[in-house]
Amino acid sequence: MPTPAPWAEAFTAVGWTLPAPLAGTPDADATAVKHLEAYFAVRPNGAPMYSGSRFETLGGRGDAPDLRDTITAADLVALTTLSINISNHVDEAIALLQPGARPAQPTHTISSRDVPVTELPFDTRRIYELLRLLPTDLSLEDATDEHMVLADELFWQLRRKDFGPVAVYKLRARKRPHLLPICDDFVRRELGMRDFVGFERNLRTVLRHEDKALARHLADIKTQVPAAAHLSTLRVFDIIVWREHQQNPQH
Q1: Which single residue of 4, 85, 93, 193 could bond 8 by disulfide (Cβ 3.0 to 4.6 Å)?
Q2: pLDDT in tens, 120-172
Q3: Contacts of 37 (CB under 8 A, 6+ apart)
Q4: Which residue ranges make up each domain of the chain?
């Protein structure tokens, strides 16, 4: 019987199902590599098989030194490579590109029967300030509780009625790919999660377990796929788990 992966008990502890490609066996590793290779495959005409393979680099990296603390049009267009239809979020896109905008009151403290919090204007000054407080070179497994509090606030500063949690996860990941993970319904279902609550903190727990064993394993998987060399550990995790559910939705 194969020895359980060092991180397996951490998945159990947070209530997650361990995806088969992350089981830590040679066969599992081979599947994980195949998932990454398939994600970065190109068609005969040179177009990517998956548009998401361009998410990090479209229009330049979102965490580049001159772009890291602001939200740009390229960041918003990059969301379309991950199936976020920006044409459905035009008002939000325009508002997020206004760096000086600030509502009359902080959105996270307003409670109104007539004006829901999620309908209030973005506080883009605070959004950009939060980005300045979150380092681009900080990995999730090394993040402190203080960093997680800032990440939570960034989530809720971006969250709107028509700009849902998946869109927010993806936009934050574009700006801080090493610190802020992507989670969508494919990933949620593959991990056996009922909802998105606690996702980041649980993933931090899993990545830290046994002296960061899973983080090191994901880094090793990445080295076997040259096209994935630019990815963060979080994005490697996302792609492997996402494709596993896509290929085996019964999970």
Answers
A1: 4
A2: 678 999 999 999 999 999 999 999 999 999 999 999 999 987 789 999 999 99
A3: 225, 227
A4: 8-247
Contact, 148 vs 127, CB < 8 A? no
Token duo for residue 114: 């007539």
Q: How many residues does the chain have?
A: 251
CB 18 within 8 A of CB 203: no
What is the distance of C-alpha 89 from the center of its chain?
19
Q: How many CA atoms lie within 13 A of 178 on its CB side?
A: 16
For residues 96 and 74, the answer to whether their CB atoms sit within 8 Å is no
Give backbone dihedrals phi and psi of 236, rounded to 5 degrees, phi first.
-60, -45
Residues 6+ apart with CB under 8 A from 105: none
**Torsion angle in degrees (nearest 10) through CA of 121, 80, 207, 21:** 150
Could you give phi then psi for residue 233, rounded to 5 degrees?
A: -60, -40
